[in-house]
């Protein structure tokens, strides 16, 4: 009997707890917040997964593998499993898929925009500010077994890019910007001289001049049947940077969409004019700018500084056959500007986030590995693979890195001139860089910005009219495609969305259920007491 | 006994005839196109960026993501690569090999690959599965591009070194074009014929690392003579997406 009653009470308690749990679940899911352990347990083995992005570059893969090997020799109880990606978008998709099955990686190379979406589950991504300053295991901490950077040795602008929603959810890994890779030989053949500071007007003017053909349809400047003078790799960056340079709206810090404005419309008209003549195209429509540049079929190729090893006659990496490569002088310059005296260019590049796990020791192991990726050995080696720059002053100011920069042009591999000049371009313009606001939905907004250009260019090529009515419809279509009308401008910042008070019907339902269970428990208790009383009587 | 033999022979013939129906199409007649639909010849002649309407048959599916499908298709006259065609996940499941579809989209070219983009489709009655067309003799010819995107065969080619491993040894294949990838990524391998070497690919979305062809390429040795089948894809030159590798017959 006792057992029976206990079971009933237990069941009632369990159900009540379940009820509480259910109501508590409203608007939140996830795990307990990470707390830094007192000490790292070296007596246990930990296995962590690291999802990394490389630019389809064998040297980068080798650097990741070497870094893991070196780290594992310092911490023999930590095993790091590397999974390689060549596309940030694929990492993003896989992380989203793995969140639902609780199989996220431990350490992940990603973009802050993407982290904003990962934060839709509570405590999924570890806030790092407490770890930065932890006396023992923080940046430059007393118990860290390697020579990593102190927190003030991370370039402040780059670190700030990883701060949103009141926390640091990542550390920068590498930084790049965009650059304009120019066929100077053709610019001069067309009768122009490259200005000290590149402007949009200059690029459009030279591009149009390059469209002249002979009677056989060959372009005069290159003698070939193909010439797209200006190709932009990332049209989302193109629109974002143009708007920034024009001081026009894109989004507010809290996620209000401002993209669909009159300046955007003017820019789309401008782009459509040059798409109509064939002077402008995009990567998505035509192909990699580097392929056209190296074949002498493009004059202005805008791509990341992290794509510098593909640019130019002597580029160490190339996708086109040798017989198609044309000899020309390559110049790398900052992207074109509307106001060259106040240049504005985007800061981009991979950052690293850490996913929370139920075992705090495992998270600490992840943090130690993350810190290792900021050591000089890794930072300098990886930055030398492309036009990246290290994210720490410790690495940037090191003798090894300064020596690397000073040797531009010594060969066409490690010291490839265009690659080192692209890196120097960013080093000289760090104060001119900017990033866009990060919020849950900022990835979609970025995609939408690029889609406006892609659609406009495609429409023009297809002979469609681009006018106010077209642009109005385009705004509507793109808003709908990326569900921008569903972004909550008030709570757009990433993280736990406050879903507000429960609806009245839910409150009534939950209250009814609660009262019912209280009555059931009271009834069971009364029955029990009544029975006890009867038992006493019978004695 | 004779009657039994006759019966067995008849049954065998019937089975052979039935089996033939799944390969090489339902009939050998030329495609009759519906009204407003282009012939392959008209499609080939259409200008880039123009709207095209074709009736074609699914030969293989490469990928589906975010309501977009990438599909290799072919009719009896030529092939059409459908890139990121609007397609629900439910409809994607219906696109089995041989399914006839009417496609409306725009003709485009990306790094030499001619494709139909921004397309929509509807499923129609009909079925056709293309036999692989042997284009080995055309490999060094300018006419090869006329067969772009078709399901093709290459016979008696020799495996060459694709690159070197970390120890400096020559290897028969690479993960990703330069060896920067890992298991599950595209496989790149080189094959030669008559002194010319070509780079072929196992496209990991089309044939992932669980497929026979992925395993077969990983087991290749430099110097092996092989026969291959696949789709005649283009990227800055011919870059077939291989779906089958066997020892040369």
Description:
- The complex is a heterodimer of chains A (539) and B (249).
- With 539 residues, chain A is α/β, with parallel strands linked by helices.
- Chain A has three domains: 2-26 and 502-538; 46-176 and 349-397, D-Maltodextrin-Binding Protein, domain 2 (3-Layer(aba) Sandwich), CATH 3.40.190.10; 178-347 and 432-486, 3-Layer(aba) Sandwich (D-Maltodextrin-Binding Protein, domain 2), CATH 3.40.190.10.
- Chain A is 43% helix and 11% strand.
- Chain A has 19 helices and 16 strands.
- Chain A has helices at 2-24, 58-74, 88-100, 112-118, 129-133, 156-160, 184-189, 200-209, 235-245, 262-276, 289-294, 360-372, 376-383, 393-396, 399-406, 417-428, 442-461, 468-481, 504-538; strands at residues 46-53, 78-85, 107-110, 163-164, 167-168, 171-172, 174-175, 178-183, 230-232, 280-282, 300-304, 330-334, 345-346, 351-354, 389-390, 433-434.
- In chain A, helix 1 (2-24) runs antiparallel to helix 19 (504-538), helix 9 (235-245) packs across helix 17 (442-461) and helix 10 packs parallel to helix 17 (442-461).
- The two termini of chain A are 18 Å apart.
- The model of chain A is unreliable at 1-28 and 489-502 (pLDDT under 50).
- Chain B has four helices and 14 strands.
- Chain B is 15% helix and 41% strand.
- In chain B, strands 6, 7, 10, 11, 12, 13 and 14 form a seven-stranded mixed β-sheet that branches. A five-stranded antiparallel β-sheet of chain B has the order 3-2-1-4-5. Chain B has a two-stranded antiparallel ribbon with strand order 8-9.
- Chain B is globular and about 60 Å long.
- The relative contact order of chain B is 0.13.
- Chain B has helices at residues 2-20, 40-45, 89-94, 212-218; strands at 51-65, 68-74, 79-86, 99-110, 113-127, 133-134, 151-160, 163-164, 170-171, 174-175, 187-193, 196-202, 225-231, 241-247.
- In chain B, strand 11 (187-193) and strand 12 form a beta hairpin.
- Classes of the chains: A alpha/beta (539), B alpha+beta (249).
């Amino acid at each position: 009997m006792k057992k029976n009653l206990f079971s009933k009470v237990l069941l009632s308690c369990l159900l009540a707890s379940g009820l509480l749990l259910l109501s508590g679940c409203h608007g939140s899911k996830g795990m307990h917040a990470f707390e830094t352990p007192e000490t790292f347990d070296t007596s246990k083995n930990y296995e962590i997964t690291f999802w990394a992005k490389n630019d389809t570059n064998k040297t980068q893969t080798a650097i990741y593998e070497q870094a893991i090997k070196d780290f594992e020799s310092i911490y023999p109880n930590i095993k790091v499993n590397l999974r390689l990606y060549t596309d940030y978008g694929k990492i993003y998709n896989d992380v989203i898929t793995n969140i639902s099955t609780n199989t996220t990686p431990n350490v992940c190379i990603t973009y802050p925009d993407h982290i904003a979406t990962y934060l839709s589950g509570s405590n999924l991504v570890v806030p790092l500010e407490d770890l930065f300053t932890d006396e023992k295991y923080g940046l430059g901490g007393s118990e860290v077994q390697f020579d990593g950077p102190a927190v003030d040795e991370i370039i402040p602008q780059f670190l700030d890019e990883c701060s949103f929603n009141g926390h640091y959810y990542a550390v920068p890994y590498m930084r790049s910007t965009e650059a304009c890779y120019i066929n100077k030989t053709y610019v001069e053949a067309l009768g122009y001289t490259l200005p000290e500071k590149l402007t949009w007007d200059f690029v459009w003017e030279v591009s149009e001049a390059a469209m002249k053909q002979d009677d056989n349809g060959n372009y005069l400047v290159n003698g070939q049947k193909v010439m797209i003078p200006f190709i932009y790799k990332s049209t989302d960056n193109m629109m974002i940077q143009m708007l920034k340079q024009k001081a026009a709206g894109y989004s507010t810090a809290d996620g209000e969409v401002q993209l669909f404005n009159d300046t955007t419309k003017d820019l789309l008209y401008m782009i459509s004019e040059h798409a109509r003549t064939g002077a402008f195209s995009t990567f998505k429509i035509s192909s990699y700018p580097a392929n056209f540049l190296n074949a002498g079929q493009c004059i202005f190729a805008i791509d990341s500084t992290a794509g510098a090893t593909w640019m130019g006659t002597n580029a160490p990496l190339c996708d086109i056959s040798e017989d198609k490569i044309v000899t020309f002088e390559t110049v790398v310059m900052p992207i074109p500007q509307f106001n060259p005296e106040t240049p504005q260019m985007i800061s981009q590049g991979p950052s690293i986030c850490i996913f929370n796990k139920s075992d705090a020791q495992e998270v600490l192991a992840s943090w130690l590995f993350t810190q290792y990726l900021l050591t000089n050995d890794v930072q300098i080696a990886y930055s030398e693979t492309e036009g990246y720059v290290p994210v720490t002053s410790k690495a940037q100011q090191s003798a090894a890195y300064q020596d690397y920069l000073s040797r531009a042009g010594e060969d066409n591999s490690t010291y490839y001139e265009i690659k080192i000049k692209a890196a120097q371009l960013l080093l000289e313009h760090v104060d001119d860089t900017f990033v866009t606001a990060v919020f849950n939905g900022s990835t979609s907004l970025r995609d939408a910005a690029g889609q406006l250009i892609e659609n406009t260019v495609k429409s023009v090529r297809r002979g469609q009219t681009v006018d106010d009515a077209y642009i109005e419809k385009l705004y509507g279509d793109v808003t709908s495609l990326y569900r921008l009308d569903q972004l909550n401008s008030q709570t757009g910042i990433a993280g736990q969305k406050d879903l507000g008070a429960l609806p009245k019907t839910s409150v009534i339902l939950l209250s009814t259920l609660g009262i019912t269970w209280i009555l059931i428990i009271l009834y069971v208790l009364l029955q029990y007491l009544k029975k006890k009383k009867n038992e006493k009587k019978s004695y | 006994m004779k009657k039994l033999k006759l019966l067995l022979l008849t049954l065998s013939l019937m089975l052979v005839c039935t089996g033939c129906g799944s390969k090489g199409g339902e009939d050998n007649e030329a495609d009759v196109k519906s009204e407003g639909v282009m012939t392959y010849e008209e499609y080939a002649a259409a200008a880039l960026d123009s709207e095209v309407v074709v009736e074609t048959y699914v030969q293989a599916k490469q990928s589906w993501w975010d309501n977009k499908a990438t599909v290799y298709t072919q009719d009896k006259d030529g092939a059409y690569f459908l890139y990121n065609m609007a397609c629900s996940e439910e409809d994607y499941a219906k696109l089995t090999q041989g399914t006839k579809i009417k496609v409306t989209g725009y003709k485009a070219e990306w790094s030499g690959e001619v494709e139909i983009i921004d397309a929509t489709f509807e499923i129609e009655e009909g079925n056709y599965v293309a036999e692989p067309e042997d284009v080995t003799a055309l490999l060094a010819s300018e006419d090869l591009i006329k067969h772009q995107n078709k399901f093709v065969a290459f016979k008696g080619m020799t495996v060459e070194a694709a690159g070197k491993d970390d120890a400096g040894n020559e290897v028969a294949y690479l993960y990703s074009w330069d060896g920067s990838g890992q298991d599950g990524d595209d496989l790149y391998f080189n094959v030669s014929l008559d002194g010319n070497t070509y780079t072929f690919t196992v496209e990991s979305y089309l044939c992932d690392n669980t497929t026979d062809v992925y395993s077969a390429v990983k087991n290749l040795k430099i110097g092996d003579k092989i026969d291959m089948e696949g789709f005649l894809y283009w990227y800055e030159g011919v870059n077939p997406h291989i779906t089958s590798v066997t020892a040369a017959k």
